[in-house]
Amino acid sequence: MANTQSAKKQIRNSHRKWLRNRYIKGKMRGSVQMVNAAIASGDYQQAEALMPRAASELDKAARKHVIHPNKAARKKSRLMQKINALKSA
């Protein structure tokens, strides 16, 4: 248990950050899952329509330091590869 005032404040702040990060990650994961579901069902139009929102959520998470910017770029790239493969198939 924290004894000093600064340690107690750090616990409050870290909990607040944890809640914010969890919310941002949840929105990011949800939008990516919707794109993946559209890809899995073979619906190119829906996947293409959902991709901008997923890219936006990934960029927001990277901008707020919830995930690394390279991870956001990698996830966007892989999603676009799947969408383009679906288009050509």
Notes on the protein architecture:
The protein is mostly helical. It has one domain (14-88): Methane Monooxygenase Hydroxylase, Chain G, domain 1. It contains 3 helices and no strands. Helix 1 runs antiparallel to helix 2. The longest helix has 37 residues, at 5-41. The protein starts with a helix and ends with a helix.
What would you say about this model in short?
With 89 residues, the chain is mostly helical.
Strand content: under 5%
Instruction: Tell me the name of the CATH homologous superfamily.
Output: Ribosomal protein S20
Our count of domains comes out at 1
List low-confidence stretches: none
CATH class: Mainly Alpha
Tell the overall outline.
elongated
End-to-end CA span: 58 Å
What is the CATH architecture annotation? Up-down Bundle
Q: How many beta-strand segments?
A: 0
Total count of helical runs of at least 4 residues? 3
CATH topology, by name, is Methane Monooxygenase Hydroxylase, Chain G, domain 1
User: What structural category characterises the helix and strand content?
Assistant: mainly alpha
Gyration radius over CA? 18 Å
Features:
0% strand, single chain, Methane Monooxygenase Hydroxylase, Chain G, domain 1, 89 residues
What secondary-structure arrangement, pairings included, does this model have?
Blueprint: H1 5-41, H2 44-63, H3 69-88
